[in-house]
Amino acid sequence: MLQLIHEPPVHRATLPGYESLNRALLAGLAREIDGPHVRQSHLEMGRHENTYIAREAIPEVEPLCRAALSAAQQILGRQELRLGFWFNIMQPGDRTARHNHEEGDECLSCVYYLEAPENSGDLLLYPPQGILHITPVNGRLVFFSPRLAHAVEENRSGRRRVSVAFNFGPEAPS
């Protein structure tokens, strides 16, 4: 089980052994990025914000999905959860506008950092008490409410930034 640290309004954890997981995931992403199992959405500010890859096409994501789901179950105190995930690839100069994930019945959102060079843009959260800056760190999971508005600052690193985002919701009845 992951060691979760609760710092309202977020929970965070760092995956043990994330280096090998990140290498495998980045290799899987490179292999699949132009393949038939990819769908991109949200053309905003000159880039597609979300890159969806079918789960069965990128088996390298499974250890991350298991870890994120286990942490979400712990945070929410419920076992019956489903997850959806997508990749975010931010080139130098890219940023993400303020938004939330308040679609449908989502219970929890999360971001996991695969490749986060220094100055690649903080995650900005907008709780009622003010703006919270979270600096991305390779191997870190950050969980927050899907209703919480958030954005990502401009990537000023000169290198790409890659993350995996998750939403968790109640498992559909069978």
Distance between the termini: 27 Å
- Low-confidence regions: none
CATH superfamily grouping: q2cbj1_9rhob like domain
Instruction: Return the CATH architecture.
Output: Sandwich
What's the CATH class, please? Mainly Beta
Q: Order of strands side by side in the largest beta sheet?
A: 1-2-10-7-12-5
Rg over C-alpha atoms, rounded to the nearest angstrom: 15 Å
Q: Estimate what percentage of residues fall within beta strands.
A: 35-45%
Report the mean per-residue pLDDT as an integer. 92
Q: How many DSSP E strands?
A: 12
> Can you write the helix and strand succession as a string?
EEHEEHEEEEEEEE
The tally of helices reads 2
Total discrete domains: 1
Strand pairing plus helix content: what structural class? alpha+beta
Task: Give a description of the structure.
It is a single chain. With 174 residues, this protein is of the alpha+beta class. The protein has a single domain (13-162), classed as Sandwich (Jelly Rolls), CATH 2.60.120. The chain contains two helices and twelve strands; from the N terminus they run E-E-H-E-E-H-E-E-E-E-E-E-E-E. It has helices spanning 18-32, 62-76; strands spanning 5-7, 10-14, 38-44, 47-53, 81-90, 96-99, 108-115, 123-125, 132-134, 140-144, 150-152, 161-170. Strands 1-2-10-7-12-5 form a six-stranded antiparallel β-sheet. Strand 8 (123-125) and strand 9 (132-134) form a beta hairpin. The mean pLDDT is 92.
Topology:
Elements: E1 5-7, E2 10-14, H1 18-32, E3 38-44, E4 47-53, H2 62-76, E5 81-90, E6 96-99, E7 108-115, E8 123-125, E9 132-134, E10 140-144, E11 150-152, E12 161-170
